[in-house]
Structure formats: structure tokens, C-alpha cells
Design brief:
The chain is an alpha+beta fold. The chain contains eight helices and four strands. It has a four-stranded mixed β-sheet, sandwiched between helices. Helix 1 (about 5-20) packs across helix 6, helix 2 (about 25-45) packs antiparallel against helix 6 and helix 4 (about 60-75) runs antiparallel to helix 5. The longest helix has 20 residues, at about 5-20. The protein is elongated. The mean pLDDT is about 90.
């Protein structure tokens, strides 16, 4: 990881933690999370708004006024509206999606949920997904959240990532091991 990406991760973590700490209780945090998800979806779905937010030529005051207007029209909770203003004022609004991911990671961590990435060559059937979720949860003794990735290049099998541990049981890795 480069120094710049480490700095960005640290910045995003600080803003995410600040938003969590600014929520007075669990109910408010739940509303903030809903607002965060909604606003993130709007940014993803609106190319114009996304370009506006990321454009360095538009000053932060103009961005702040526009985003405040959007947040008010969507009836977002005041603490979230203030958060968007602060991100904009400090020139960090372009990191919004990364802050959102850190926010969710911290909430999951606080709730004792461990994220497990599972990569397969084809989309998992719901029944198989439930069995994997149950088996991993029981084996590890953790509450887990599965993040599923489909990667046709692994040919078959599965790759499981739990924090810094990776279990590669893919057909591609087996073929590479045998140098076929």
C-alpha cells in the first residue's frame, strides 16, 4: 500500500468514526446509515452529480450549497447533513464512497460481524450460500457477513478471504501448482 492510499484510508476512517460518534444513540445511527446508503446510491446512479462532486474546479462553497439543498430535499437527518457539509468544506467529498465503506466496516466491527469474501467461478445458489454462511459461522464462532464475488478466471472451486487469511481452493491455483 502506498503512502497516499494509507493517508486516504486514515482520512476516511477518521471521518467515518466521527460520524458514528456524532450519533447520539443507536436509533439515530440507524437513520444516519440509511441516509448514507441512500446518498451513496444517488451519487453512484447520477453521473452528473458524481462528476460535480469530484470536479476540483468547482469550489467547496458551491458544492456545499448544492449538496445541502439535496440533503434537505431528501429530508436527511441533521447530523448527516452536517457531515456532508463538513466533508465538502474540508475538500474530502470526493472520498464519500470510501468513507461510506469504512463507516460500514466500523459498524460491523462494533457489532461483532466479520466480513468474509468468497470468490467463485459462478454465482452461488441461495441454498448453497446459506449452507456456507452457516458452516463458516459455526466453524469460526463468529457472526459473519458474506461478500460474494464471481470471477470466471478461477475456473472452479472457491477462494475464501477472512481478514488477512486467504484459502485458495480454486481450480486455477491447483493447475498453476501442477504447472499444467
Amino acid at each position: 500500500m502506498t503512502k497516499t492510499s494509507q493517508d486516504i484510508n486514515e482520512i476516511c476512517t477518521r471521518y467515518a468514526k466521527a460520524l458514528i460518534l456524532s450519533s447520539s444513540n443507536e436509533d439515530e445511527l440507524k437513520i444516519v446509515k440509511e441516509n448514507f446508503m441512500d446518498f451513496n446510491k444517488i451519487l453512484k446512479n447520477s453521473q452528473e452529480l458524481s462528476q460535480f462532486v469530484k470536479n476540483p474546479l468547482i469550489n467547496s462553497q458551491k458544492k456545499s450549497r448544492a449538496l445541502s439543498s439535496i440533503c434537505k430535499s431528501l429530508s436527511y437527518i441533521e447530523s448527516f447533513q452536517g457531515f456532508v457539509k463538513i466533508l465538502t468544506k474540508h475538500g474530502k467529498i470526493s472520498f464519500f464512497e470510501k468513507v461510506f465503506l469504512k463507516f460500514n466496516d466500523i459498524i460491523d466491527e462494533n457489532n461483532g460481524i466479520t466480513e468474509i469474501h468468497i470468490t467463485t467461478a459462478e454465482k452461488l445458489d441461495k441454498e448453497i450460500e446459506k449452507k456456507i454462511n452457516k458452516k463458516l459461522s459455526e466453524s469460526l464462532g463468529l457472526k459473519i457477513k458474506l461478500t460474494k464475488v464471481v470471477d470466471k478466471e478461477i475456473i472452479g472451486g472457491v477462494i475464501i478471504k477472512i481478514k488477512s487469511i486467504m484459502i485458495d481452493n480454486s481450480l486455477k491455483s491447483k493447475l498453476i501448482d501442477f504447472k499444467i
